[in-house]
Structure formats: C-alpha cells, structure tokens
Amino acid sequence: MNVSSPRLAPPRRLAAASLLLLACGLCEPAALRAESGDPTASGQEYLDLGLEDLMNLTVTSVARKSQRVSDAAAAVFVITQEEIRRSGVTNIADALRLVPGLDVARIDANKWAVSSRGANGRFASKMLVLFDGRTVYTPLFSGVFWDRQDTVLEDIERIEVIRGPGAALWGANAVNGVINIITRPAWDSTGKLVSAGGGTSERGFAEFRYGSQLSAQSALRLYAKYLSRAPQDAVTGQEANNGWSALRGGFRFDSEPTQQNSFTLQGDIYHERLHDTYVRMVPAPDTLLHTTPVLGLNVLSRFKHSFSDQADFELQFYYDRTDTDLGVIKEERDTYDLDVQNRIAGFGPQEFIFGGGFRFSHDQLANQIPALTLTPTGEDTHLASFFVQDDITVYPDRLHLILGTKLEHNSYTGWEVQPNARLIYTPNRQHTVWGAVSRAIRTPSRGEESLSLYQPGPVPGVLIHLQGNDRLEAEELLAYEAGYRVEPTPVLSADLALFYNRYRKLSVFQPSLAPQPTPFGPLVALPFTLGNFGRVETAGAELAVDYRMLPWWRLRGAYSYLSFLSAEAQAGAQLGNLRGSSPRHQFSLRSSQDLSREVELDLWLRYVSALSFTDTSNGSAVGVPEYFTLDCRLAWKPVSDFEVALVGQNLLERQHQEFDSQELATQATRVPRGVYGKLTWQF
Amino acid sequence: MLKILSTYLALAALLVVWPVQRLGGEPGPVTEPQVKAAYLYNFVKFVEWPSGALPGGAAALTIALLGKGARNAPFEALSGRQVKGRRVQVRQIGRVEECAGCQVLFIMPSERTRLKEILRAVPSSGVLTVSDIKNFCSLGGMIGLVTRNDKVQFEVNLGAAERAGLRLSSQMLKLSLSIVE
C-alpha cells in the first residue's frame, strides 16, 4: 500500500489528532481534581469536588430516581435534550433512532415509519404518541403524521419511550409502545434563542424563541420556526417530488401561583406544504403528483394541585384541529379531550393512581378520487377511558408489585379491558430486575371501518378492491416481558429487555376470487375485505449499553433483535406486510467527545438489516437491502452563548433506501448523504 | 470513509479496555442535592466577606437553610467541615429574619413564591444568597444554581454581590454560566 497516497492522508491525520486529544484528556481530570478534604467523612466524597468537576458531573435527580423505582417495570428509554442536540438530528422522528429497539425508517423527505417490536409502516397503528400530553395519533388511518410533530428542538426537555404495551395509565392503542415528547416548562427556557442554518437535504431552517420570566411565579415562551427540505431521489434514480416546507409558531405559559397549584397553557399553529407522489393509482395515469397543504392548531391547558406529599390531582384539557388536503382525500378534524388523574399514597404500602378521560373527535372528509372513498363523509367518534393502578410496596425499596387496568369505551368496538401486572425487584443500587404480563388492544380506525381503495391487480383489466369492515373487532395482544438493568460502576450501565408477544385478531385482508364490477368501465375488481384473521407471535431482545469512558468521552451502544415465531392468517386471508416491514437486527454505536471546553465531536454508526415487502397487487416480493450509515457532528462554542455546528448525515453511501410504503403507496425513495451547518445564539 | 471508521473504532476499542482500571476511585452516583451542597461548599471557599461580616477569632462560619424539604440532608453534611480556618455550621431556619449573623443564606425552592419579600429582608451587607430557584439572579439573588442537560451549573449576579460588600473570585466568575450585572 502506498503510504503517501492522498487517499490515506485524512485517516492518519485524524488518528494523530485523536491520540493527541487523548493524551490531553487523560491529564485533565487529575489536574482538575480538587484536593481531598476531611478523610473521616465517608460517603461525602462529593463535597470534595472542585467547581470544574461539579460542572461536568451528570446528576440523577431525585424525581427521576423515584420514577425509576416505581414506573420502570417496563422497557423505558429517555432521550435527553443533550442527546438530541449532540445527535445532529433535525426532526423528532429521526431523534427516535436514538432509542434502542425503536425502528425508524424514512419513507421519503416528508414521511416516516416509526414502530417498535414489529408491524412498522407509514400508518404504524400500534404506537401511541403524545406531545406534552396531547395524543397525536390520527384516527383517520391510525398512525402518526410525523411531519406535523415539531417544535424548537432545543425546547424539548426529553422524549420518554416505552417499548411494549404501555402501563395502564397511557391512552388508547399503546400496544407496541408509547412515545412521550415533553417540552421544557417556560421558566426553563427563558432568554432568546436564534438559530439558523442550511445544507443539502436541509435546504434551510431558522428558528426563534423568546422566553421571559413574567414574575416570580410565572413565565412565558414564544417561538417561531421555518424549514424547507429537499426531495429525495426515487429508487429508480430519478428526481422525485417529495420536498416540503413548514412554518410554525407557538407559546407556552407556566405558572405556579402557590406551592400547591400549577397551571400550564400552551398552543401551536402550523402550516405545511408537502409534495407527494402517489403511485399505483387507478385508473391510469398510474402516478399522481400533489402538493398537500396542512393547517393545524392546538391549545392545551393543564392544572395540577397537590393536597400534600401524598396526594395530587391533575386536570388537562386540549383542543386540536387539523385541516389537510392529501390529494386523495380531504380531512378536517376537530378533537376535544379532557383527562383527570389522581394520585393517593399513604394507604400503608400502597400508592393509587386513578383517573379517566374523554375524547370527542369530529371529522369532515371529502373524497377526491373515485379509487379511494371513505363513508360517511362526516363522523363523530368518542373514546372514554378509566384507569386505576396500585403500586404495592411488598418490601420497602426492594420489591414492588404494580397492578393496573384500563377500561375503555370506543365508538367502534364498545367496552375493552386492558389489565397488566408488573413486578420490579431492586436488590441494591446496581441491579434491577423486572417482569410484566399485559393485555393491550388496538381499536379499528376510521379508514379500516369504511375504506374503499382500488389498486392495480395481478393482471391487466383486473383490479384489487380493498374494503374496510364496520364489524371489525379490536386487535389483541398478550405480552410477556422481562428486563434486567445493571450499573456495575458509576460510569457503566446496561439495560436488557426481553419480550414474547402473542397477537390475535390482527386486521388483515381476506381476498375473494369472485370479480365484481367497478366504477371504471370495463375493469373488474377482486374484493379484499378486512377481517380479524391475523395471528402472530414475536419474540425479541433489546440491549443498551452506556459507558462514560472518560469524563469527556461517552460511548453508547444498542442492539435489538426481533423474530417472528409464527405468523399466520386464518380463512385464507393474507398477512400483507406485518412480517417483513420491521428489521430482524438493528445496531447502533454513538460516541460523544468533548474535545475541549469549546469543541464537541459526535459520531453515530447504525446498522439496519434488510426488509421484505409484499406488493399487494400481485404478491411479488419487494426487498429493501440492509444498510450501514454514519452521522457526524462537530460543534464549536467559542463563547458560552454562541455555537457553530457542522453535521454530516448518512455519510457512508451516496444514498440508501429505508422503506417501501405499501399502504396508500407513495413513490419509494432513497435517503441521501447530507451535510448542513447550523448557528445557534442564545442570549 | 471505512478507513477512518476502522481507525476510529480500533482506537475506541483500545480505550474501552484500558481505563476500566482507573475507575475504582471515581465518586459514586451523586444526586442533584448533593452536587448543589458541594457547590455551596465551593462558593464559601471562593467568596471574600467584608471585614466585620465574619465573626471574630476562629468562630464558625454559618450557613442558613431557609425552607424545608427532604433535600436538606446533603446540605447538613457540610456541618463540621473546615474552610478558611473556620468550622462550618449549618442552621435550618423557618423565617428569613432568623438569618441574622449568618454568612450564607441558601433559599430552598419551597420559598419561591415568597422570594421577593425574602430578598428584601436579607441584611444589606455580608450575606451571600444562593438558591436553585429558577432565575434567582434575575430576581435579585447573588448565585443561582441551574440544572441544564443533567448538569448543575451556576450563574452570578455580580451587582447584588458587590452591593453586599462581597467579592467573588475571578476564577469562579470565569466558570459561571452567565453574569447578571
């Protein structure tokens, strides 16, 4: 090998630079360590830390610790603000790739598929997503429009993700997981923030936030954000139509007039223009180009009162409106939601949480193409739910038994019961073992009830007619989970979760071979009708390791495995893409280095194994190959208020495909390599 | 690009194995109140009181904790430590008036709603006010503890400290998150 080859130069330089930094870094902690104080005071070593050591120390807050003991009898992962910032992601869906075991695939520039433990898709129906307590799961097709979920990323405090059925507290359809996006209270984001940047995929973005302490008891935050993203090329290599732009603004007001009462009022308004390319349309032409306008607004208020340390009460109300023209259907939707929650501790070793909620949703649809219709065009739906959970301390600080159930009444399937039992054992600070058995259900969506969608069929002249079913029952899951967390040293921790899921009554299409007439002249169609015929068993494991190797260098690894033990459909129905839409293996390794007080370097390597889709029309297989990808972020903070960041995304290949959307098919695209720069000024 | 990656990973692997030995001496997991108590101890080291504000001879330096909470225990651990040749004494007080004769007043978040009155009632000279109440410095306090990204940092209101005759060391100012005048 020719050593003087220019191609080799960069790696050698990088290695040399890293070694130099390494040498500096190793000297640093010793130099900064404060001199030792009173040696007799054992267990108080923290008091001897110097100012610089203290500033670099990551703390576990008391609140979080208590949450760890009582609530974490589940596969929980929390994305912190710091992780979001250092990952270089520009949107919430991509930030979710930080969660071990969560499967995030970008379908095109403005569409994502996000799920855990199987059944991914643009309309991944088994994940509950909450944004500051507001459900963002759309009842139209069931699933989440990820483009609409955004804010100033710097104002997100954390994103909590539970893989597996949510504990009884959570809302409807928390079957495979719960994603809870939580923004900072207004008093934690005072001051001005201006940030702007741009690059290849991120054509340009700008955001502004102003936060102000109005009085000792209250604070207000206002924000505005604009972004424009470039389209991704189609898998065929052609330029495609899927770019988009979005403008949004909002506010959050927090007040704590007395120690016992707190009040939050927040709201957002946004407007987007999404370019979409629908494919496999009938009748000809096959492709439909459309610019989708989305207008949304929401207002939420929350009131909390604590009677004592032992009891509190929370009341939340929100209104959410979305108005969109998808090109294939128009939807206007108004949702009103009221939730109440009570916590009472002090019944000996027990702590009760109970509450309930009522959601009312009204939609007005307009069918735009004969190939896709939903009926009736206006519908009111409701969801009433009640929950109770009892956290029983079997042995103080060691063993907790958590029993809970949820009782729900919905417009489609009536009453549903979802109980769960969890046990958590913490023999000492280093080890946690937990297990859970839960039943969860997913209720049918508006689309599944009354869908009529014509797609190309196996031979010319014959279409497939996908039909909803108003007698669908809820999908059922019985989940067995177990987990183990270990923290052998203060700098190393590992979290392992295992699951076995048994799904019954999954809604899948049952084909018929008797052709029927269609509204398209001579064409005939084979009716495919939804029914509760799918039976699937999955099992898997998710492992996360966090290693703070040096005070200035942290490594985080994750591996997840998903296996379909069995997947069958009764009565001749087809499983569709339940099985092939989620990867068997996922792997991720992140490195976060503080090269100096001013410079941060982050590297993020990911691997996702191959997917295999079935083309609904002719049953042929459509594969999405496995991929490796690498993101890199270099940030320089010359003064404490100002930061310059350079981010490279998907650096290993020019472009790679991550998904193939089969439901309401849009053109398959490839995610390109991208670079952007960002300036952030906080003052 | 794979070359860079492999070099980097090899280096990372080397480091993963090596420093395990060094970890024994690192402090155990530390809670937020503990870190705040340690900060308070450091502040006492880095602040100079006006002559007259300190009691005569080698009498104890007193830290008053205003407001109650389960979080007070780590602060009370400061009692008996030595700083500037004096013993530290920690006193729990219920009303701000009781802080007379103290050198440091730490205000617990439970007092947030009464903060303005408390700051008005603090003796005008010789008492360092510290708190983790949000925006403590903007509201007239001297040193505010701020938790950001799971790390505790501090901001300083230099004007308020100077008006009370206190001098904060330049080393401390350099490390502060921001300085409110």
From TrEMBL, chain A:
Any one cellular-component term (Gene Ontology): cell outer membrane
**UniProt entry keywords in alphabetical sequence:** Cell outer membrane, Membrane, Receptor, Signal, TonB box, Transmembrane, Transmembrane beta strand, Transport
Keyword Transport listed: yes
* Signal peptide annotation: 1-33
Q: Which PROSITE patterns match?
A: PROKAR_LIPOPROTEIN (PS51257), TONB_DEPENDENT_REC_3 (PS52016)
Q: Which compartment or compartments is the protein found in?
A: Cell outer membrane
User: What Pfam families does UniProt report for this protein, alphabetically?
Assistant: Plug, TonB_dep_Rec_b-barrel
Q: For the TonB-dependent receptor plug domain, which residue ranges apply?
A: 69-178
Its record classes its membrane topology as: Multi-pass membrane protein
GO MF terms, alphabetically ordered: siderophore uptake transmembrane transporter activity
Quick one: a GO biological-process term for this protein? Answer: siderophore transmembrane transport
UniProt KW Ribonucleoprotein keyword: no
Principal location listed in the UniProt entry = membrane
- Per UniProt, residues of the TonB-dependent receptor-like beta-barrel domain are 225-651
Look up the domain of life of the source.
Bacteria
Q: InterPro entries in the record, alphabetically?
A: Beta-barrel_TonB, Beta-barrel_TonB_sf, Plug_dom, Plug_dom_sf, TonB-dep_rcpt-like
- Kindly give the Gene3D superfamilies that the UniProt entry links to this protein: TonB-dependent receptor, beta-barrel domain (2.40.170.20), TonB-dependent receptor, plug domain (2.170.130.10)
Q: Which PANTHER family match?
A: BLL6183 PROTEIN (PTHR30069:SF39), TONB-DEPENDENT OUTER MEMBRANE RECEPTOR (PTHR30069)
Q: Which family does it belong to?
A: Belongs to the TonB-dependent receptor family.
Name of this protein: TonB-dependent receptor
Automatic annotation (TrEMBL), chain B:
Name of this chain's protein = DUF4154 domain-containing protein
